[in-house]
Write a structure and sequence with these properties.
Blueprint lengths: L3 E6 L3 H13 L5 E6 L2 H4 L8 E5 L3 H7 L10 E6 L3 H4 L31 E3 L4 H14 L16 E5 L5 H16 L4 E5 L12 H13 L9 H8 L6 E3 L2 E3 L14 H14 L4 E5 L7 H6 L2 E6 L4 H13 L3 H6 E5 L7
Parallel strand pairs: 1-2, 1-3, 3-4, 4-5, 6-10, 6-11, 7-9, 7-10, 11-12
Antiparallel strand pairs: 8-9
Helix pairs in contact: 8-9
């Protein structure tokens, strides 16, 4: 989901091309990148970006040339320091900057139109560090980011269950695993299968999908507390109770599941896992191949199979390895079961 407009502005065209290429090719990058070699070219843009990454050599022209963006939308400005040029400029004394002028690294402050402080990072450092700084700027203001590596310290864990061959076996295994774990842990069961159990189970998943879509299209979600955001993302009416296990009933209509994709489910699961509301969430995937970001979010992945299904399951793991997703493949545990009577 590339939805944050990022403008890069630097007179050094070669440097800018390298940075542009790096950001575009980063997996799960949220940025739509546009590049400029001068503030004059940048000033022709009527649409303000979410983030502006710009050479400190352009500092003096930023406020005056880009004033038409003022009050239109909040733009986070990050200056690339070229070696002390900004700290020596007379603009530091102009009232545009404040106590954090000349500071480096994440947390040094955003450079906003009010001129309270500047966000200044070293230009000549690994591109990965600059990219991480941009992500930190976006995360601090509440933007949606996919960062599976930062979800490993969540209060809860996600267990995925997926069978490429036998959905009935997948469903039964996931349900049994959720019930077993809920005897000792606070658990939630969620299935993304299109057709489940028939009628009579409410429409919890449909209500949940509506709530997720409503929150994600709002710009003010960063202003809500964690507790308020969780209540908005997870209305109580979505949940039913099966003994000691919380369950989200299936969708009222299977087409409701097409309304959101893997990245939206990641957004929701990430918030619920971090909230500590559940020790474990068991997720039974749907008919489609699970999104890679969701598989990365899982701490364990079980693949139930009958003996005749093993070849297909191994093929799925081999595909992940071929794609360079060995970390996901290593989390998959094949559970070969005896074929039940009547199946």
């Amino acid at each position: 989901m590339r939805n944050i407009l990022l403008y890069l502005c630097d007179p050094d065209a070669a440097y800018m091309r390298r940075m542009d290429s790096y950001i575009r090719h980063r997996e799960y990058s949220p940025f739509i990148v546009r590049t400029y070699t001068s503030v004059e070219a940048l000033a022709q843009e009527d649409e303000p970006p979410g983030v502006l990454l710009i050479s400190s050599a352009c500092f003096g022209a930023v406020h005056s040339a880009l004033g038409h963006w003022h009050d239109r939308v909040r733009t986070s400005i990050v200056f690339l320091d070229e070696g002390g040029t900004l700290s020596k400029t007379s603009d530091i004394d102009s009232g545009y900057t404040g106590k954090n002028a000349g500071s480096y690294g994440p947390g040094s402050g955003n450079c906003g139109w009010d001129g309270e402080c500047i966000d200044l990072i070293g230009k000549y450092q690994p591109a990965g560090k600059i990219y991480e700084h941009l992500l930190n700027v976006c995360a601090a203001r509440g933007d949606f980011l996919i960062q599976p590596e930062k979800a490993r310290n969540c209060a809860g864990r996600l267990i995925g269950v997926y069978s490429p061959e036998n959905k009935r076996l997948q469903r039964d295994y996931a349900w049994s695993e959720a019930r077993r774990l809920s005897d000792k842990e606070r658990g939630l069961y969620l299935s993304l299968e299109e057709f489940l159990f028939g009628g009579g189970h409410g429409s919890g998943l449909s209500d949940l999908i509506f709530a997720i879509k409503d929150v994600m299209r709002r710009d003010d979600r960063s202003e809500a507390s964690d507790k308020e955001l969780l209540a908005q993302l997870f209305p109580e009416k979505c949940i039913s109770r099966e003994g000691s296990l919380d369950v989200i009933p299936p969708a009222a209509c299977p087409y409701d599941l097409e309304e959101i994709g893997a990245e939206e489910w990641y957004f929701w699961l990430d918030h619920v896992l971090k909230s500590g509301r559940y020790d474990v969430i068991v997720l039974s995937f749907g008919s489609a191949v699970p999104g890679l970001c969701l598989l990365e979010l899982c701490s364990e992945i079980y693949m139930p199979a009958l003996p005749e299904d093993e070849a297909v399951c191994h093929s799925f793991k081999d595909t992940l390895t071929f794609m360079g997703r060995q970390a996901i493949a290593d989390k998959i545990q094949l559970a070969v079961l005896t074929k039940p009577d009547g199946v």
